[in-house]
Amino acid sequence: MTTTLLTGYEPFDDYETNPSETIANRLDGEQIAGSDVVGEVFPVEFEHTNELLCDRINELDPDIVISLGLAPERTAINIERIGINVNSGTGVPDNVGVEPENEPIEADGSDAHFATIPVTKIVRDLADGDIPSRISNTAGTHLCNNALYSVREYAIQNDLDLDSGFIHLPFSPALAIESADAYVSAGTVPPSMPLDLQTEAVRRSIAVATEER
Amino acid sequence: MTTTLLTGYEPFDDYETNPSETIANRLDGEQIAGSDVVGEVFPVEFEHTNELLCDRINELDPDIVISLGLAPERTAINIERIGINVNSGTGVPDNVGVEPENEPIEADGSDAHFATIPVTKIVRDLADGDIPSRISNTAGTHLCNNALYSVREYAIQNDLDLDSGFIHLPFSPALAIESADAYVSAGTVPPSMPLDLQTEAVRRSIAVATEER
Amino acid sequence: MTTTLLTGYEPFDDYETNPSETIANRLDGEQIAGSDVVGEVFPVEFEHTNELLCDRINELDPDIVISLGLAPERTAINIERIGINVNSGTGVPDNVGVEPENEPIEADGSDAHFATIPVTKIVRDLADGDIPSRISNTAGTHLCNNALYSVREYAIQNDLDLDSGFIHLPFSPALAIESADAYVSAGTVPPSMPLDLQTEAVRRSIAVATEER
Amino acid sequence: MTTTLLTGYEPFDDYETNPSETIANRLDGEQIAGSDVVGEVFPVEFEHTNELLCDRINELDPDIVISLGLAPERTAINIERIGINVNSGTGVPDNVGVEPENEPIEADGSDAHFATIPVTKIVRDLADGDIPSRISNTAGTHLCNNALYSVREYAIQNDLDLDSGFIHLPFSPALAIESADAYVSAGTVPPSMPLDLQTEAVRRSIAVATEER
Hints:
GO biological process, one term (chains A, B, C, D): proteolysis
Helix content of chain A: 25-40%
CATH class of chain A: Alpha Beta
CATH topology of chain A: Aminopeptidase
Number of strands of chain A: 9
Oligomer: homotetramer
Keywords (chains A, B, C, D): Cytoplasm, Hydrolase, Protease, Thiol protease
Structural class of chain A: alpha/beta
GO molecular function (chains A, B, C, D): cysteine-type peptidase activity
Distance between the termini of chain A: 11 Å
Strand order of the largest sheet of chain A: 2-3-1-4-9-5-8
Largest interface: A-B, 33 and 33 residues
Protein name (chains A, B, C, D): Peptidase
């Protein structure tokens, strides 16, 4: 019997909702492939979120941590391969107005850490389930990348037997409509994926990560 | 009591399925907002399809014709505004190998015809239903544009009390996966929309077009 | 000996410059393939610009009118095929704050007019000159489309022996940098083309249009 | 007086030319900001190129290594931030038909290495020169990423006082036309940048890297 910590984020920027929050809440309490899922939602703050996340890992002692985040404009579920030692806001401040530019997350940390969930197996499994996904080589430099990097760094520093990874989620249809530019007049509408399909993608990802341990 | 002819196309190019075929078949026989839907699937042939389509209109005498087609890479339901008097293959031959380049559909026809279904009302209604859509100003120059143009030209030439329009559909998730480029290695995955959501979009569009007549 | 009226627009939206203005000014007074080029810059106003344009045509009696406009995000020179009878701001008001939504340009006008400059020959010629270009099937619904539609409508109504068309220009490099989103932090930079190459594209287009008359 | 090794690649995939080859050859022998540039072109082979590259570094003992590569579809000069320990062909085999899938470059190597040329200063300098550029967080997983990773790994293993980095170049206009899909019929044309502007971007990048040492 294992435990999976599934993390989401509060809404940020001008978006009214965040699929990562919705899905972390939906799957909280589910048992998936024999792993008890604990879903939790974190604030979007460069200066505190990774500490809160690591504190929670320390407390819960999970076997797997899968973090979720919203990636506007992406067309599919993105299974992130690597987190890098950079905090940079890319024009989007966090929810308390902080926007670092090209700063390290950990002053003496490694340049980057690979996710340790089986990213290739997950994208193949999602394809088998008719859910569009891909491996992504960059989680950006915002809080999402920070979570991926920080959890690996924490696991290594503390010699934890912990697998972790990050999944970037596309817009929900409602967010795509909210973000569309003049759609009644041939403007653009960003790509999206219904929340039920996104939730199923996360469920399958947890199952593959659990079965591969 | 009105009749709606809902047309789809057979698969073309290298795609194994065509959402327009699936949805025309699914909705065939449904009654939507008091309109009897007759769903039919047409071949992808520059030289015959518009004749077959006009023959069927002549036979069935529908009040509304809504034609559906696949638009690879589009991110949302596209309600087409206008059909133009051009056949051009754009690198994709039809299913019998014919590929015209910048030829007129009708030698002495008008340059273009607006769709007469209420395109603005439809995109607003789809947004109300949380289905991403937009007005599109170009249906391309392949069979899809041909259908939109040819049905309007036929209705005008024969003085028919017929409203018609065209809806371009995105990839289904299965088609997006089939068309993805190296997704297990950070390639690209085109945008998609589940067939159930696409079907609901078409159902709502027929309802709005019927109620507005 | 012929005359070509080459029109550009003042800057609009938040852009500090407009390549169409720069190029209309640069080519003003040149003789290209035996055609005297008169370059003029027009304001960006839905309610007046087409009148100003038609008045100028009435005065100058040119053989060819080629109108230029900026198309943010396009990757290449776009030779427009057709102008449609729609004014719609698509989220961008004109320079006096007017933003129509899906209104006709001419209440009883045709649905659309094809450009009468030789669009296919122009894109082939530009390719021969190593300048990326394409035929575009939509000039949008802003002032650019308005110019293409209005000049054709005016020529037809007044039975003028006038060829006309529209060329959409990409960002200059400076505009791309100005419009880039957080490029020092892996944000996006829109595509662009240097003004010298854009100018050469317009020069070649005028030459082809002149030689084909 | 310093030495800069500037590397390019032979053409690969179906592309007839490679801007990285052209520019490495053009700048070979130039002195830029007091650094002697040695331009060299390498084969596109997963199994040998990084060895050839490291052998050449061993021989030449340069102060700076800047590697160039073609990144189809990118809109601007991309200054790469990081190379990761992954070889993966992403659907494009190398020039002898080898296509690894998600394999490590160095079995026991670090997960990734940051470029040590001043990436932020370079993008700011290019913007000052009206050349569109951005920091990129992923150099992919093909030979380009391999060069960035392998040179840093080699420098660290051999304790070299060597700064190195990677610049991804967009299509030249000729390559964009060659890669365009049906541009005479409203197909798509990928973004591009003239080779002179690309060359100037590389020249400025070498100058900034040299001045910052």
